[in-house]
Amino acid sequence: MRIKGMTLVAFAMIFLAACGQGVNVPTEGEQTEEQVAEGEKRGEAQLDGLHVVVDTQRGNETIDVKMLLSNELNEALELEFASGQQYELTLTDPNENVVYRYSDDRMFTMAIIQETLLPGESIEWNEVIPIQAMEAGAYELKAEVLVQAINGKAVEPLTTTIAVNLQ
């Protein structure tokens, strides 16, 4: 009997210790931002089983942006977009003026786009933002996944913002 009790206590201690080892993932509708490495930043947002991670890498003349949209559920998700534009990137200067918008000077199909994201599956988008003509200062990058419905349920876009310092 004593061995069973000690085994149960040992199991409980291991379980509780393991619970503290998780990654800081945002809750529904919440966003986070973190410094990943020198010159890199990450923003995240989560909604109805969808998780978006936005990584930025600042170069001399560009900001490289990688967006990864993942299905974290054990079931397929039917995503609906209002047009061929599935995401938007907006960079604003310290005075909150838009200095870059991904959709400027681009054309997108004007049709509802439906995409199935299987369990554990991801979609990746990569963009390069030119910054050579921009002045030094504290900028903000807003990244939005423009999904309008998940499994037929209307939702707001997944949005995260990342502070970008140009020097």
Short structural summary:
The chain contains one helix and 13 strands; from the N terminus they run H-E-E-E-E-E-E-E-E-E-E-E-E-E. The chain has 167 residues and is mainly beta.
Strand-residue proportion: over 45%
Overall morphology: globular
* Domain tally: 1
The name of the CATH architecture is Sandwich
Provide mean pLDDT, rounded: 82
The CATH class, by name, is Mainly Beta
Any low-confidence stretches, pLDDT <50, length ≥5?
4-33
Number of helices: 1
**Structural class label:** mainly beta
Might you state the CATH topology name? Immunoglobulin-like
Topology as a string of helices (H) and strands (E) = HEEEEEEEEEEEEE
Main β-sheet, in a few words?
Answer: 5 strands, antiparallel
Rg, alpha carbons: 20 Å
Oligomer: single chain
In angstroms, what separates the terminal alpha carbons? Answer: 67 Å
CATH superfamily: Intracellular proteinase inhibitor BsuPI
Describe the strand arrangement of the main beta sheet, using strand numbers: 1-2-3-4-9
